[in-house]
Amino acid sequence: MKKVFALALVFALMAAVPASAVEYLYIATGGTSGTYYALGGEIANLLANNIEDVDVNAPSTGASAENIRLINAGDAELAIVQNDVADYAYNGTNAFEGQQIQTFSAVSSMYNELVQLVAHTDANITSIADLKGKRVSIGAAGSGVYFNAMQYLEIAGLTLDDIDEQYLSFAESSDAIKNRQIDAAFITAGVPNAAIQELGATSSIDIINLDDETINALIEAYPFYAKAVIPAGTYPNQEADANVVAIRAMLICKNDLSEDLVYNIVKTLYEKKDEISHSKAAEIHLEEALLGVSVPVHPGAARYYEEVGVN
Predict the structure, then answer these.
(1) DSSP readout, 140-193?
(2) pTM, rounded to two decimals
(3) What is the pLDDT of residues 205-262, one digit of tens each?
(4) pLDDT digits (tens, 9 = 90+) for 159-191
(5) Is-contact 177 102, C-beta < 8 A?
(6) C-alpha separations of 190 from 193, 229, 234, 266 in Å
(7) What confidence tens digit (pLDDT) does each residue in 287-304 have?
(8) Contacts of 67 by beta carbon, 8 Å cutoff, 6+ apart
C-alpha cells in the first residue's frame, strides 16, 4: 500500500511539472487612450502567439520615463519609449539628471513622433530664430516636449530669456493660438495631430519648415533625432511639405534577457508584422530599425539585424 502511494505521489509530481518552462514577459506601454497601450497590446499578442513557451502581457503605465524605471526595477522586461527619453536615461541627463540608468538595451526603433512647431500666420514666424520675443508654448515643464523645445532654441542661439514661454498641453496650446494668447507652440506627436488639425480648421496657421543646416545641427548635437517630413496637405491649408526632425518610438528590453529570446522577438516583430492590425504597424519598417537609436542594441537584436543586412 505504501509503495502504491509512493508511486502515485511520484506520478502526481511529474504531472505538475511542465514539459518546458513558460517565460512570462511584461511590456510596459502607456495610458489606456494612447498609442503605446494599444500597440503594445498587439505586440504582446503577436509574441505570445508566435514564440513558443512565452506568455506576454502589456499593462497600462505612465509611458516612457516610468517604463524605463519599471525595467530598471525588474517590473517589466520590455517597454515602448521615446528614443530621446531613452537617451536621457542612459546618459543621466535632462529628466534623468543624477539618476543614470543603463539596465536596458534597444530592441527596435519603430515609428516617428515629429517635433512640430506651429504658429499663427499673423505672428510672422518662418524659422526658429523668429521665436525671439514671441509667446511660445513649450509643453509641460520637464516633459519630452519641453526638452525638444529647449534643443530647438539652443540650435538657434536662443534661451528662455528670449521668449515668453508658456507651459501648455497640446489642446491648451491650440486654444491659446486660436485666441491669439500665444504666437506659437511646440507639439511632439505623430501626424496628423488632432490639436493642430482642429486649430487649422478655425485659424490661419503655419507649420514651420526647418532648413537643412538647422536639421543637420540638431541631429549632430542630439543623435536621437531623425529627419522627417510633414507632407503637404497634412493640415488645413498646408500647401508645402514641412521638413522637421522626429524622435522615434522604440522598443527596449532588459539587458539580461537571453540573446535567443530577443532574437526571436525581433524576428517575430518583422516577419509576422502583418498580424498587427494597429495603423502604426504600417510605419514600422525593418530598414529603419536602428534609426535614431543612440543607446546600445541588445546582442539578440543585433544578431538578427546583421543577418538581414540592417545597420
Answers:
(1) STTSHHHHHHHHHHHHTT--GGGSEEE---HHHHHHHHHTTS-SEEEEEE-SS-
(2) 0.77
(3) 999 999 999 999 999 999 889 899 999 999 998 999 999 999 999 999 999 999 999 9
(4) 999 999 999 988 899 999 999 999 999 998 888
(5) no
(6) 6, 11, 11, 23
(7) 999 988 999 999 999 999
(8) 28, 29, 30, 61, 76, 79, 80, 81, 252
